[in-house]
């Protein structure tokens, strides 16, 4: 029985630490009716998460010719707000089932890869974040090349709430 109580106490402590919650050092004076408040509030400290799947299609510049690509981009966004507002957004972009066709040669190209971008957002207002993740264009013959054909746009509030996620070729 004592071991169960110790395990529960340890798990509660780990959960409190994982959520970033704080406990005041003192509960105030003996005459106080309610405990003192911490500066950091739980709502401002909690991360926000959103994940979307966006189809895309368009022409990109290949190493020897223009390539018409078509596929799906999986985008995950995690915002880590600061207690005073603002913070960092982690934008993870990953290609899925993406191929292309050379406009003149009609050869098959593959667009592959994933990238994580860490971008700060403002404490003052809603921020529009634009990133151009780097992917690899694999031609039928020759050397693969790094390309940045897609712009990912994320709109984040000053508290880290994710309003929208879009992706477009170009």
Note down, in words, how this protein is organized.
This protein is mainly beta and 170 residues long. Helix content is 13%, strand content 51%. It contains two helices and ten strands. Strands 1, 2, 3, 4, 5, 7 and 8 form a seven-stranded antiparallel beta sheet that branches. A three-stranded antiparallel beta sheet has the order 6-9-10, with no helix packed on it. The termini are far apart. The model is unreliable at 5-9 and 11-44 (pLDDT under 50).
Short summary of the structure?
The protein has 170 residues and is mostly beta strands.
Topology:
Layout: H1 2-19, H2 42-45, E1 48-61, E2 66-81, E3 87-102, E4 108-112, E5 114-121, E6 127-131, E7 135-138, E8 145-147, E9 150-156, E10 162-169
Antiparallel strand pairs: 1-2, 2-3, 3-4, 3-5, 4-7, 6-9, 7-8, 9-10
Which terms summarize this structure?
170 residues; mainly beta
Unreliable segments of 5+ consecutive residues: 5-9, 11-44
Strand content: over 45%
User: Got a strand count?
Assistant: 10
Secondary structural class: mainly beta
Helix proportion range: 10-25%
Instruction: Tell me the series of helices and strands, N- to C-terminal.
Output: HHEEEEEEEEEE
Largest sheet: 7 strands, antiparallel
């Amino acid at each position: 029985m004592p071991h169960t109580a110790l395990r529960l106490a340890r798990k509660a402590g780990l959960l409190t630490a994982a959520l970033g919650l704080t406990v005041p050092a003192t509960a105030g004076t003996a005459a106080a009716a309610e405990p003192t408040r911490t500066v950091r509030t739980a709502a401002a400290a909690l991360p926000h998460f959103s994940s979307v799947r966006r189809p895309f299609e368009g022409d990109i510049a290949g190493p020897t010719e223009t390539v018409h690509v078509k596929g799906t981009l999986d985008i995950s966004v995690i915002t880590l707000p600061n207690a005073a507002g603002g913070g960092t957004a982690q934008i993870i972009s990953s290609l899925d089932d993406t191929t292309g066709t050379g406009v003149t040669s009609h050869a098959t190209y593959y667009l592959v890869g994933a990238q994580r971008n860490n971008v700060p957002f403002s404490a003052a207002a809603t921020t529009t974040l634009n990133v151009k993740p780097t992917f690899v264009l694999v031609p039928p013959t020759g050397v693969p090349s790094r390309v940045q054909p897609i712009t990912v746009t994320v709109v984040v509030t000053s508290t880290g709430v994710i309003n929208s996620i879009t992706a477009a070729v170009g």
